Amino acid sequence: MLNSSQNIALHRRLTNGLALGLITMAMLIVTVPLFLILGTVISRGVSGLNWAFFTQIPKPIGEVGGGMVNAIAGSVMLLAVASLIGVPLGVGAGVYLAEYGRNKWGNIVRFTADVLNGVPSIVIGLTAYALVVVVQKHFSLLAGSVALGIMMIPTICRTTEEVLLLVPQSIREAALGLGIPKWRTILSVVVRTASSGIVTSIMLAFARIAGETAPLMFTALGNQYWSKSLNQPTAALPLQIFAYAVMPYDEAHRQAWTGALVLIGLIMLTVIVFRFISSRGAIKGAS
Amino acid sequence: MRTIPERRPSSSEEPEMKQTSETNAGQGLTVVSKSRASARESVFADSAFRSVVVLCGVAVLAIVALIVFELVTQSRLSMSKFGFKFLVKQVWDPVNEDFGALPFIFGTVVSSLIALIIAVPLSVGTALFLTELCPRQIRGILSLLVELLAAIPSVIYGLWGIFVLAPFLRAYVQPFLAKYFGWTGLFGGPKYGYGMLAAGVILAIMILPIIASITREVVTAVPRVQREAALALGATKWEMLRIAVLRNARPGIMGAVILGLGRALGETMAVYMLIGNRAQIVRSLFAPANTLASVIAAEFTEAVGSIYLSSLIEMALVLFVLTLVVNALAGLLVWSITRGMPARALA
Fold first, then answer.
1. A8: domain range?
2. Tens digit of pLDDT for each residue in B148-179?
3. Model pTM?
4. Which residues of chain A neighbour B328 with C-beta distances below 8 Å?
5. What is the tally of structural domains in chain A?
């Protein structure tokens, strides 16, 4: 009797140990690819980091040297114009959902934003192609920005809604009770209280689109030279990395790794800055 | 667009409001008319503001409507030529303008399933570790590491896949699989490194953080008392996790998994760079294949002829519908847990 109950206890203890061990191992395994990828990007990319990389445009294929300054500038321009499209629309839609959208229409918009969030980036690229490239009859920076801007909206919209809802109802009531009109209450009291959370949402969206390649392939297209206007095809860091990665030259591969290092550095910086901001604000970012 | 005229009343409004509150204390009549005027103004400003944010909401609807509209109209040509056969045909012949999507649908689904098989146990384990076992001091840093995995761009996964993962698979993993599991027929043929297996592995790494973070949310939503009750009955830690946590969180975890599936289905760059880009349906996972997203990326700019373009856009439509269904299902499941509906209703 005693013996058998001891056996059961042993069996349970073994299962417990085994399961907990497996769970811990899963955690360890998950961290491995991160270190491997970061390690490779750093070790192979660092050798190409030099002044020329940040000041010169790509050399013709086969020649050593050159840089990606046009791609870096192109990415900055693409992201800036995309933010001009995505941030106002995303924050506006988030304000609508939080302040006016607690009804059927709000639910429809909420559901649609979630749908948009799940649309593969390449499909959004195709749409931007049909909307801008086909109409303009040529590839352009603008088309790429439209694609990226659309991708920013759902992230910003849903996160903004979440942080606005975290603002206590009593603060709204206090402002309205002082006779401040509703729109003013929302802008100067509610949005301001939640501003660090909204900044978080913008950073999240930014980090998401900064490395996007697929939607740029048939909108911004890529460019070996400087792009002089919004209506020209433009180089972008992810596009350039891709172009170099699939070339059969060592020099191109070296440039690709360096580009990857710069791109990852940019994105990680954004993510770490947003975590810093969101951990200090009055109202912490949702998610 | 409308913000400038709408802001104008604001500057005049503030002093006015002060006046009303001052005069309110003193005397009567003029105040009433003044506060009425300001009330009219603020009613106007309110409705203007409201229409601006409503417009932003409508813009979201309009964008999705536009996506659907463009995909449907642009693919009409291929729809009328191939009909429903488009979905079940195996040919992909740009020269003779004969197109079928089946190999791409097959590649998309199979590579995503490989990704799930690898990623689900790892990410659920990670989520459980982070919520239940992890010492408080290292929880922050570990969850940051998992989040950073999600911040790496697809094209860098692809780059790493080409130069590190594929050679590694070719040299170590594929010979091992062929030797011990070759009898299944899944691991036969030449070992390129590239192919379905490589795409599945890279997708697994990419969807790990999504599944892990949503599972974490869902597991955290399981009430503390459930855990305490299980422990009080003498359950070991694992039994507590199994009985009190996992069983309650099951629909939510399913939701997380399906959301990861949705992400994997639409992933483009990394898959494009690793899968080998050959439209075929073969049993071996070592063989090159192709997916809906990666064929669009590969061939769209080079496609000549309207029927070719139209076929590619119809593939985008198929992909859109596929991810829509998958994401809607996932959203429903996650919502059922985190918004306080009784879990058992769905389990």
1. 2-48
2. 888 899 999 999 999 999 999 999 999 999 98
3. 0.87
4. 115
5. 2
